[in-house]
Amino acid sequence: MSSKKDSKAVVAPLFITLKVVDQEQNRLRHTMRSTDKLQVLMDVWYRQKRPDVKYGSGTFWLEEICVAGRRTPAELKMRDGDLIEFFEPQLGGGLAA
Predict the structure, then answer these.
(1) Which of 13, 8, 48 is nearest to 27 (CA)?
(2) Which SUPFAM superfamilies match (predicted)?
């Protein structure tokens, strides 16, 4: 008698809902395919939530990882409901001479 193990690979969910928040508590929930590039989420953020911020000037962070638009949720092993933080560019703040 032979015992067969289930050889099916674990597959990431087809769709995933991600949240984006900034320091002013602007929030966005976006559902996308786990295989789509995160650039889609970033484009929606700039267009809907932060039209006052120059496109591409801020950074998106998932825990300690700076998120690049070319990556996918599946590549980053993201789970449904994960939170991405958006940070506007910081100008100044250097030591005064």
Answers:
(1) 48
(2) Ubiquitin-like
pLDDT in tens, 9-52: 666 569 999 999 999 999 999 999 999 999 999 999 999 988 88
On whether residue 44 sits in a domain, the answer given is yes
Burial profile 34-57: b = 16 or more Cβ within 10 angstroms, e = fewer: beebbeebbeebbeebbeeeeeee
**Rounded to whole angstroms, how far apart are CA atoms 27 and 82?**
13
Q: Which two tokens stand for residue 61?
A: 């962070």
Q: What is the sign of the dihedral through the CA atoms of 58, 62, 68 and 70?
A: negative
Torsion of CA 51, 49, 81, 65, to 10 degrees: 30
In a domain, 32, yes or no: yes
For residue 94, the Cα-to-chain-centroid distance in whole angstroms is 29
Does the residue 67 lie in any domain? no
